[in-house]
Amino acid sequence: MKFAVMQRNCAEEAVGPTVAAGMSNSGPFGGTSRRKRSPWAGRRITCAVCLAMLPLAASAELSNDSLLGPGLRYRPAYDGSSSQRLELVPVIRYFGETWFARSTQGVLETGLRTELVPGLHAGAQLAYEPGRKSSESAFLRSHQIEDIQASASAGLQLEWDHTIGPVPLTLLARLRKDIDSERGAQADLRLSVGVFHGGPVSAGIFGQATWANARSTTALYGIAPQQSAITGLPAFQPGGGLLFTSVGLLWSVDLNAKWVVVGSLESRRLSGKVADSPLVERQSNGYISAGIAYHY
Predict the structure, then answer these.
(1) Residues with Cβ within 8 Å of residue 274, at least 6 apart in sequence
(2) For 75-107, how does the pLDDT look when each residue is reduced to its tens digit (9 = 90+)?
(3) What CA–CA distance (Å, rounded) separates 212 from 243?
(4) Distance set, CA 189 to CA 174, 192, 257, 284, 286 (Å)
(5) CA 179 to chain CA mean position, Å
(6) What DSSP letter does each residue of 228-279 carry, written as one string?
(7) Alpha-carbon torsion 124, 126, 132, 136, what sign?
(8) Rounded to an integer, what distance in angstroms lies between the CA atom of residue 58 and that of residue 55?
(9) DSSP, res 64
(10) What is the radius of gyration, based on Cα positions, of the chain?
């Protein structure tokens, strides 16, 4: 079983440079919000989606096919925002002898990898790091918050593929240091598990925790004293620690031998001191993605 065995069959949320169309309504998953809203509204939607997918609970068989195609993602303007955006994203999955490229494990990345022992791979990657645009959020615009430009990161990763009976799983540990020194560094720990494969349909679940150092959280959620004077928001320094945790569902449906429809649902929750930032309108956000890709 090769590198990133879980994601070979079920492409998750695609990320990368995007073309976005604005939507100002709240996210689809609900969660803690600083505005008055029913705490059950988002839960009802999430439960309905989960109930609809219950027939998929079974073991999985996975493939290593390469994929390339377009997708759409519905996501928050930034984690913690109550504004949502619809954007065009790539669906990419390629694994060569040493080189790989993918958009299926939380970031758009490419790099080199090598197998240390059967099922265990080590690699180095370059990844796209999205920014934050005030034009996408009414809250940011009203407080004159400056944009954060998109960037890139370099880092290392270790990935373990294993099966327990018929169930495949992948555990990924990844370190990402932004090439912009002011953006700091983040570390991801991600577990993906196959739960169903029957005919053309496959499905899996995943969970992720991401940590960030103080420089990274300050760039994203901090407010310096001089910024406080401009924005009217209180000064805030979040410090390093756990940035967010997330859980999600990923799926794919083969249309024929060459084409497949893929998608994912994710609920992401800010953690630690970051959740107390004046820039955070809500603690939880939802992501939905779907796309069509060509097997090549």
Answers:
(1) 80, 212, 217, 220, 221, 238, 241, 243, 244, 280
(2) 999 999 999 999 999 999 999 989 999 998 889
(3) 6
(4) 7, 10, 33, 19, 19
(5) 20
(6) HHHH-SPPB---SEEEEEEEEEEEEEE-SSSEEEEEEEEEEEE-GGGGG-TT
(7) negative
(8) 8
(9) -
(10) 19
SS3 48: helix
8 Å CB contact between 286 and 266: yes
- Compute CA distances 95 → 9, 72, 246, whole Å: 13, 23, 26
Place of tokens 């270790």: 158
**Assigned token pair, 45:** 């939607």
Q: Which amino acid would we find at residue 213?
A: N
Among the residues of 70-119, which ranges form H helices? none
pLDDT tens for 237-274 read: 999 999 999 999 999 999 999 999 999 999 999 999 99
